């Protein structure tokens, strides 16, 4: 028996917000105010490259539960000397680390989310911690009904606890919940737990030379060009 779709949760980094472009623009403006000229997009790329390896330390049990803000800060402290920024003090490092709280959405996101919200419960299902996701939503005007984070379950995607935990907390069967993501591996993990799936490509997430997640890798339940088409496809 297939249930009616009741709720949609969204991967955030890359799917909802343009992390690379946002970081480059934000830190570029900050650097200009402080007389610092750097390749901020390269810093963003190097930072993001440490994302999965750091979370894997938590997933594997090598270290205890650690929120993403703290993992980001550990990676940042390692990266700054590589970008000639080892002289930065605590206040400056904290400002830079919190750039992840200030990311901007892709151009189709707000309209698409507001339409989807009229018919479905909408929320995040992100590896970002709760404070990060709430601050981002306030700044970016993202109209979530609920914020689910890896922190909610103390488990980073793609561990099953994240997908099943969101369904459980909404009192839904897994197939009453859909994950929307720009990443095929995230969708595969959600589908394995019984969730419905929607793929929205973000072909410039990793910059002009992106090579992965340019197209759906499986026959996902919905494939859409953007959140507006996703709303169209779901009758919102």
Description:
The protein is an alpha/beta fold and 236 residues long. It has two domains: 7-18 and 103-233, Rossmann fold (3-Layer(aba) Sandwich), CATH 3.40.50; 19-102, Putative phosphatase, domain 2 (DNA polymerase, domain 1). 44% of the residues lie in helices and 11% in strands. The protein contains eleven helices and six strands. The chain has helices spanning 19-33, 40-49, 51-59, 68-79, 90-97, 109-117, 130-140, 150-153, 160-169, 184-192, 227-233; strands spanning 7-10, 121-126, 146-149, 177-181, 196-200, 222-224. Strands 3-2-1-4-5-6 form a six-stranded parallel beta sheet, with helices on both faces. α1 (19-33) crosses α2, α4 crosses α5 (90-97) and α6 packs parallel to α11. The longest helix is centred in the first third of the chain and has 15 residues, at 19-33. The mean pLDDT is 96.
- What radius of gyration results from the CA coordinates? 18 Å
Could you say how many structural domains there are in total? 2
Fraction of residues in helix: 40-55%
From N to C, what is the helix and strand string? EHHHHHHEHEHHEHEEH
Order of strands, main sheet, comes to: 3-2-1-4-5-6
